[in-house]
Amino acid sequence: MLKHIVMWKLKEQAEGKTKAENALWMKENLEALVGVIPQICSLEVGINCKEGEMAYNAVLISTFQNEEDLAIYKVHPEHVKISTYCKKIREARAVVDFYE
Q: Residue 40: its pLDDT value, please?
């Protein structure tokens, strides 16, 4: 099982929303991909409840059978729509992929 983890630092204001509103938008829209993209084995988004210089605002934790399934997910049109929006609202992004 491949675990795909993404963390985002969000802009204070972007696309007419606050950081908190954008984090919630990301959570709702990414979690809605379960059942839409069949390659997703599991997916959850957490919103950080603590502020700090080193803190990221949101994290995606998802699992896929393999790297091929992750690659399909990344180019799926529904994921691309969300990813395009996320690029507009983030300051930074970190990714880790590993096999369990």
A: 98
Supply the pLDDT for residue 43: 98
Q: What is the structure's pLDDT at 93?
A: 98
Amino acid at 76: H
pLDDT one-digit tens code per residue, 87-97: 999 999 999 99
Q: Residue 94, exposed/middle/buried by CB under 10 A (0-12, 13-18, 19+)?
A: exposed
Helix/strand/coil (H, E, C) string of the chain? CEEEEEEEEECCEECCEEHHHHHHHHHHHHHCCCCCCCCCCEEEEEECCCCCCCCCCEEEEEEECCHHHHHHHHHCHHHHHHHHHHHHHEEEEEEEEEEC
Q: Which two tokens stand for residue 33?
A: 């991909």
